[in-house]
Amino acid sequence: MLGMSQIPEISTENLEKYSSAISLSDMEIFVFPELLYSLVLANIMSPRIWAWKDHEWFRKLDTMKPYKKIQRLKQFIIDHYEFNLDLDTWGLTTKESEVERFAPFMDEKTIGRSNALFGYEGDKHYFSLDIRKHFGLDKYTSNIIPFWKTETLEAMDAFKFKENYRVGAGECVSLSTLYAAALFIICDIPLEDIFLIATPLHSQNFILVNDGVLTNNRRLVTKNMWFNGTDLTAKAQRALRHEQVTIVANNTGFVHTVYPEATIAPDSFELFRKKLDAFTTTDITFEILANFLRERSEFQKCFQIKYLRHGKEQYLPIERAYAYEHGSPYKVSDDATRDKLLDQIDEYDFYADPIPDRIQLNKLSDYLKNNPISHFDEDNMRGLAEKIDCTGDMDRKMSVIEGLVDFVHLDPELPETADKQFNGPGPIGIKPGMQRDEIISYLAELRDHHPVADLAFYASRDLAITDWKPFLKSALERNPVVIDATKDLSDAELIECLQNLPNESIYDGTRIAQPDEVWNFQRGDGLERAIALANVWKHRVSAAAIELIASNDKVTIKLGETEFCFDSGKGLKKQIVL
Fold first, then answer.
1. 492 and 561 both lie in a single domain
2. C-alpha distances in angstroms, 292 versus 60, 160, 400, 462, 503?
3. What is the domain count for the chain?
4. What is the DSSP string of 214-270?
5. Residue 403 sits in the same domain as residue 417
6. Using CA atoms, how far apart are residues 495 and 491, in angstroms rounded to an integer?
7. Sign of dihedral through CA atoms 38, 44, 45, 51?
8. How confident is the model at residue 5 (pLDDT cuts 50, 70, 90)?
9. Mean pLDDT value across the chain
10. Are the C-beta atoms of 538 and 508 separated by less than 8 Å?
11. What pTM did the predictor assign?
């Protein structure tokens, strides 16, 4: 591993990217896509997930098949982490400052494709709302936007120290990178089978296990679940249905919708494309038709269902059957339980004669039984369209057949690769079964020629083996929470407040928390608290001369002619003027 004398100084042209590996905002990951996988590797190097292997919950995991292992992991994540999208967690910035900061790398119009608050309009759900009111931004001026930083595993765990949180927490990118690392360490899923998918408003993973598994924040979606027509699944589908996929990444590299160069292995990306297409496509069966009607309730008024009660035919508007599904284990789409569902419905809801202008769902069941239809089979689709010709009035001017085709086949808007130049440093070759120390040594050997591996050490915040400049740049420029929270304190009160926080870091070893992590979780090693003080002091006195001296177990911060000491357990030695 690199020693102190071997740490290369980060060049001025790379300083923005490397400092972004520390702060890891959604915008930074869009501009510097290497950062997405660097956080996965930082989590893989962290001792936290490796400790899970000894948890009672994962006992006998080795005896389970891959999907069963993934289910166990899912429940563990659900039990230990909440989804957090509180825009105040990591503070606010402005559109102007972010556009100026990224101008050397990407123009404002392109940046606007990455973030709803810059004008992105891909997701129909959010843009049926007042976006600023939805996220609580209406109380600020229109140029104010949240940082929306991605949390490391340690920061996710530390949410348990934050008021009103009972366990860890993180936003969608945090959860997707946590899942990717845990799938590899806990479930022994090869990294080449785990693909990270980023859209402007969401991040999730696609795993090549069975017919495919999609992670969605804390939960999982299988192919069967993808087509079950429930509200929960509709929400899980939203990003892939309505948004441009901006980044796809795995251990071989990434492809980005904007940049002409791609580093992902072409055969790996093509495998991903084919597997995802198969995952989001299914044949039309009666079960799929019934699931479609569950989701697309506007089409239910075209259908009725026949039921034989006491030897007599009765007819029920299909929307009444779906209404009874709520709270019932029985489903319209399930041949084995449909009659049990209908038997629960009050007889007064049924009609004695067929309802005019409604198709009998039973007839379609007979038609589709043992004869599933592919959406691209024109003759069979034409025959099906004739049988579900609905003559009644419809709220939406879309035919049932068009909606059904849309339901059974999704073509996600992936980055186009026809004109991409594929050229990467090669795959990250760590394999299931390797131990943590072995992985860290391997990644250290890659650092001088593999940017993602090098950035992983910066994402992990280890100041013993990284240049301090990116960390300090991020600390002094992108940590507004502690500044705002202490603005009413006098200088003396500020210093006393930070000195009295528990001398306890959320990071192990020589890894260091950023100032807003210190404040949000109300704890920090002496070095971390000293840097937090420097951040606030620079804001109060922009021309202030600040000197920081780390000397093993002591940290001295000189604010002009006055100096203050903090105890430190990080064992780092450094003298620097901020």
1. yes
2. 39, 40, 10, 50, 56
3. 3
4. EEETTEEEEHHHHTS--HHHHHHHHHHHHSB--EEEETTEEEESS-SEE-S-HHHHH
5. no
6. 6
7. positive
8. very low
9. 91
10. no
11. 0.92
Instruction: Identify the residue with better confidence: 102 or 1.
Output: 102
Determine if residue 119 is left, alpha or beta; phi over 0 gives left, psi from -120 to 50 gives alpha, anything else beta.
left
Assigned domain for 492 exists:
yes
Residue 100 lies in a domain: yes
Is there a domain that residue 471 lies in?
Answer: no
Q: Which one of 368, 390, 408 terminates a domain?
A: 408
Angle at 548 between CA 15 and CA 476, to 5 degrees: 40
Antiparallel, parallel or unpaired: β 359-360 and 303-309 = parallel
Residue 337: inside a domain: yes
Range of the domain at 440: 4-281+413-459
Cα 149 to Cα 362: distance, rounded to the nearest angstrom: 52
- Residue 77 and residue 158 in one domain: yes
Q: Band of the pLDDT at 140, cuts 50, 70, 90?
A: low
Q: What angle do CA 218, 267, 409 make, to 5 degrees?
A: 55
CA–CA separation, 184 vs 187, rounded Å? 6
Whether 57 and 78 have beta carbons less than 8 Å apart is answered as no
Exposure string for 261-284, b = 16+ CB within 10 A, e = fewer: ebbbbeebbebbeebbeebbbbeb
Q: Single out the residue of 460, 475, 468 nearest to residue 529, CA to CA.
A: 475
Is the domain of 150 the same as that of 270?
yes
57 and 113 both lie in a single domain = yes
Say if residue 231's pLDDT is above 50: yes
Clarify whether residues 443 and 557 are in a common domain: no
DSSP H/E element including 491: helix 491-499
Same domain for 555 and 449?
no
Q: Which of 335-339, 363-367, 395-399, 571-575 has the lowest mean pLDDT?
A: 395-399
Q: 459, 491, 523: which is the final residue of a domain?
A: 459
Pairing of strands 253-256, 168-170: unpaired
Residues 367 and 292 in one domain: yes
d(CA 456, CA 444) in angstroms, rounded, equals 10
